[in-house]
């Protein structure tokens, strides 16, 4: 491997990469929009249970345990989709995998919208989960592979922006719209992507990996503009692809991959164990437990998560991945401490009236800080730190870790609140604090580097 890295480094030094900012073309913007449009339905799926819990339970006569199973099936299905996501993207291409994902999402939303019993409801949620499990890996990787390095973080962060648009939409609509109608709304972005994929190019790096050298160059030319000189970037990709080889799951655990694997798996574990899935899925229930008007809380949440995601989109290239990750984790830690205090003071004379407001501020801050950083950054970093030959097996493992942990958290969340509300948020606060330490000690800064430059020994960020 050291010999291969040396060859890559020498080749890229001969390429003498142009450091000037690449032009952002209309095709690049349109392609990115089509790719991330499915992220909107991802957001709808994440927030679907937050505002519809009471109406679904009433209409279909569900117990809290049955609804917890329904809520957690999104993450369980996501885990199944994640198992095949990277391999499917490598074998069939990024576009074909997205088409497959939309098939699952559309089928799942229809099953939920038409469900007359718990079986169809759960089956629909599971199918949507498989679909978003596939797109959760493919979207950040696809965008990272088509965008210039100087705007890669911003464009990849648009995935989180569209997720939050979907989340905000379902938070707001859940106040007055039927849960069946909201399920049908989840289909709209799926159809946009399904038909839009016919008009956008495949990833140039995937084409190069499949031996389509000329196709890679043609796609890069279209994405960078007619006047752009893409020879250097094309050669850079070819050199890197030529030096890569297929990696088995067993070789993934060799010492030379330890740093990347630790970062990728660690960030996904910390993202989910911070309580993000539980708080997103059951924000309405938290407001009700605290005595705060659920409708008011969900409406305000719908108004703030998108602006915060836009802020993260702007800061990811200005601050860098690592500082933004630590600031976001600090915000989650403080908001969980605030939530723990609000429920801890709930029965204390003289403080009872503060609980609703404190809980509202805690949930609001948590969602805002998550949208601004930790929601997107683990996926962005995952799409950057793994080399081409490692992306399929490593990406699958990292995605499975995220969805499996999210499944556990989303299923256990309601039961944890029954056990101890303040204790639940105290645990999440400690894990968010650990995320700051993890990011400080291990996470590299990849801002301003091409995907190929990140792998170079002289870059010294993964060693």
The average pLDDT is: 87
Question: pLDDT below 50 for ≥5 consecutive residues: which ranges?
Answer: 1-21
Radius of gyration: 22 Å
- Helical content (DSSP H or I, runs of 4+): over 70%
Shape: globular
Please, how many helices? 21
Order of helices and strands: HHHHHHHHHHHHHHHHHHHHH
Keywords for this structure?
single chain, globular, 79% helix, mainly alpha, 0% strand, 463 residues, disordered N terminus, 21 helices
Question: What is the gist of this entry?
Answer:
With 463 residues, the protein is mainly α.
Walk me through the structure.
The chain contains 21 helices and no strands. The protein is globular and about 70 Å long. With 463 residues, it is an all-alpha fold. The longest helix has 35 residues, at 26-60.
Q: Any chance you could write out the topology, listing elements then pairs?
A:
Blueprint: H1 2-15, H2 26-60, H3 64-92, H4 94-114, H5 118-146, H6 152-173, H7 179-185, H8 187-196, H9 204-209, H10 213-224, H11 231-242, H12 258-273, H13 276-281, H14 283-290, H15 294-318, H16 321-344, H17 354-374, H18 377-385, H19 388-419, H20 421-442, H21 451-454
Helix pairs in contact: 1-11, 2-3, 2-5, 2-6, 2-7, 2-8, 3-4, 3-5, 3-19, 4-5, 4-7, 4-8, 5-6, 5-18, 6-15, 10-11, 12-18, 12-19, 12-20, 14-15, 14-17, 15-17, 16-17, 16-20, 19-20
């Amino acid at each position: 491997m050291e010999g291969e890295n040396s060859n890559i480094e020498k080749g890229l030094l001969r390429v003498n990469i142009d450091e000037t900012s690449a032009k952002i073309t209309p095709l690049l913007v349109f392609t990115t929009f089509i790719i991330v449009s499915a992220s909107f339905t991802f957001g709808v799926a994440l927030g679907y249970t937050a505002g519809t819990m009471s109406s679904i339970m009433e209409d279909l006569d569900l117990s809290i345990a049955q609804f917890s199973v329904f809520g957690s099936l999104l993450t369980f299905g996501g885990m199944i989709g994640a198992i095949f996501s990277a391999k499917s993207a490598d074998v069939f291409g990024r576009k074909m995998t997205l088409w497959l994902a939309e098939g699952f999402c559309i089928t799942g939303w229809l099953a939920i919208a038409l469900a007359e019993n718990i079986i169809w409801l759960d089956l629909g949620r599971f199918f949507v989960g498989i679909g978003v499990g596939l797109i959760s890996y493919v979207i950040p990787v696809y965008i990272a592979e088509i965008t210039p390095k100087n705007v890669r973080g911003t464009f990849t962060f648009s995935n989180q922006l569209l997720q939050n648009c979907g989340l905000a939409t379902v938070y707001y609509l859940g106040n007055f719209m039927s849960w069946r109608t909201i399920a049908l709304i989840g289909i709209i972005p799926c159809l946009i992507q399904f038909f839009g994929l016919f008009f956008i190019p495949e990833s140039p790096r995937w084409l190069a990996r499949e031996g389509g050298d000329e196709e890679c160059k043609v796609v890069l030319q279209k994405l960078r503009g007619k006047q752009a000189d893409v020879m250097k970037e094309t050669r850079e990709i070819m050199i890197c692809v030529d030096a890569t080889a297929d990696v088995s799951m067993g070789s993934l655990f060799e010492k030379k991959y330890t740093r990347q694997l630790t970062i990728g798996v660690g960030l996904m574990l910390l993202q989910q164990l911070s309580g993000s899935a539980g708080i997103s899925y059951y924000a309405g229930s938290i407001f009700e437990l605290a005595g705060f008007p659920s409708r008011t809380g969900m409406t305000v949440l719908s108004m703030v998560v998108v602006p915060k995601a836009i802020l993260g989109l702007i800061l990811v290239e200005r601050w860098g991945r690592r500082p933004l990750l630590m600031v976001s984790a600090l915000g989650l830690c403080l908001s969980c401490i605030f939530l723990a205090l609000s429920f801890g003071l709930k029965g204390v004379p003289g403080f009872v009236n503060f609980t609703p407001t404190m809980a509202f501020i805690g949930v609001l801050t948590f969602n805002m800080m998550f949208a601004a950083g930790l929601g997107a950054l683990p996926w962005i970093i995952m799409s950057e730190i793994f080399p081409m030959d490692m992306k399929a097996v490593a990406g699958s493992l990292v995605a499975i870790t995220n969805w499996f942990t999210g499944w556990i958290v989303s299923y256990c969340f309601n039961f944890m609140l029954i056990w101890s509300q303040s204790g639940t948020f105290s645990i999440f606060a400690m894990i968010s604090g650990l995320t700051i330490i993890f990011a400080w000690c291990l996470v590299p800064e990849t801002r301003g580097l091409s995907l190929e430059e990140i792998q170079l020994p002289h870059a010294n960020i993964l060693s």
